[in-house]
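Task 17 of the worksheet. Students: predict the tertiary structure of the chain below and write it out as structure tokens. Keep your answer in the requested format; marks are given for formatting as well as content.
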Amino acid sequence: MKYIWNLNPVAISFPKYYTEGNIEIRWYGIMYVVGFLLAGFLLKRLAKEGLFKIAVDKIDNYVTYLLIGMFLGARLAYVFIYNWDYYSNHLGELFYLWEGGLSFHGAIIGLILSAYVYCKRNGHDTLLALDSSVIAGTPGLFFGRIGNFINGELFGRETSGEWGVIFPNGGPYPRHPSQLYEGLLEGIVLFLLLWFIRKRVKHVGVIGSCFLIGYGTFRYVIEFFREPDVQLGYFFGGTTSMGQILCLLMILSGITLMIIQIKRDKLIARAR
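Model answer:
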């Protein structure tokens, strides 16, 4: 049995009183809000446990920094890495976020930079902040991918499997629901792994390293089932996608950071 995608990406719609058309609240946006609310809740839990030494009433301010940094990083990476040929001729559309076009790898860079800026201004350890942030933020990946599925975007390659889904923009053939694969592995499984090791890891920065390695590994594998960006295609003789190249860099960065931090032997001072 093949499934035909027929979901409505609009959760709520009501008419504008000052012009034609409707005001729409989409499930994709709601998923992001849920993800950030959950991240704030988990950060407060981690702060109380002593992993991130920050006052609980400062968490919302910190999350705001991360939100801005991640969206800027995600958008700029998509524009300059994935689709510069188009945007170089349409500079006025650089920040048309409502039309889609975000890169998770860019969001990670934005997360790191915004955490650094916040910690530098407020006297916190950046790596400890990132250790907590990746734990708290990983469930949001699940909700984000569910939003992608509801939008009928970022679908997978064609499949003959019974679980294939026919997407409106994917042609007449069933495709892997790779958004759900990513949501399960990157959002649920990875979060459970990070949550399990959070009290067992001794060195600062190792949890963040595990996130980079874990996400990079899961995403690299899922890229074999995901349709590559049409404007880029494959590299290295048609074997590797841009997403896989960036994932390899994530994995190498995670391994390097872990080795450096273990050698530095800076231990996490946990609350007792």
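Marker's comment: Residues 209 and 257 are 6 Å apart (CA to CA). The first helix runs from residue 27 to 49.
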